[in-house]
Specification:
By secondary structure, this protein is an alpha+beta fold. The chain has one domain: GMP Synthetase, Chain A, domain 3. About 40% of the residues lie in helices and about 25% in strands. The protein is built from four helices and four strands, in the order ααββαββα. It has a four-stranded mixed beta sheet. A hairpin with a 7-residue loop joins strand 1 and strand 2. Helix 2 runs antiparallel to helix 3. It starts with a helix and ends in a 12-residue tail after the last helix.
Length: about 140
């Protein structure tokens, strides 16, 4: 029995750190972020957008958006990226990372937000999410 106990404890500890989304939900979230990328790509000066959903031990339920532009308004595009992710139906969502780089002026801006600690500010700025950030957070 002594040999099984450490194995059980390790298995329980690892399962507690696992992904927040199922593989199917992660795929659906990526499809949503692909639409977010298309929306952001239509903004003035935007030359490229990459949006990804990652849900693993190092990046639990994280939506990341990177925008490249030429001569764009960095703060406005960064705000649009965060607003678009926050207003999407990506769930679970525990973190938002957004960056904008102006390739013409060699300037950039970025933000990393934790939904757990920044939710009140995100809600104040962008309104309620259309879905709960975590399943069961109704």
């Amino acid at each position: 029995m002594r040999r099984l106990l450490p194995t059980v404890v390790v298995a329980v500890a690892l399962s507690a750190c696992g992904p927040a989304a199922s593989p199917e939900q992660a795929g659906a979230n990526q499809e949503i972020l692909d639409r977010v990328a298309e929306q952001l790509a239509a903004e003035d000066g935007v030359t490229g957008v990459r949006a990804t959903y990652v849900d693993d031990a190092g990046n639990e339920a994280k939506a990341s958006v990177r925008v490249d532009c030429r001569g764009c308004d960095l703060p406005a595009v960064l705000d649009s990226a965060v607003r678009a992710v926050w207003g999407s139906e990506v769930t679970p969502l525990l973190a938002i990372s957004a960056s904008v780089e102006d390739l013409e002026r060699a300037e950039s801006d970025d933000v990393a937000l934790s939904v757990r600690t920044d939710e009140a500010e995100l809600t104040r700025r962008y309104g309620e999410r259309p879905v709960p950030s975590l399943p069961g957070d109704d």
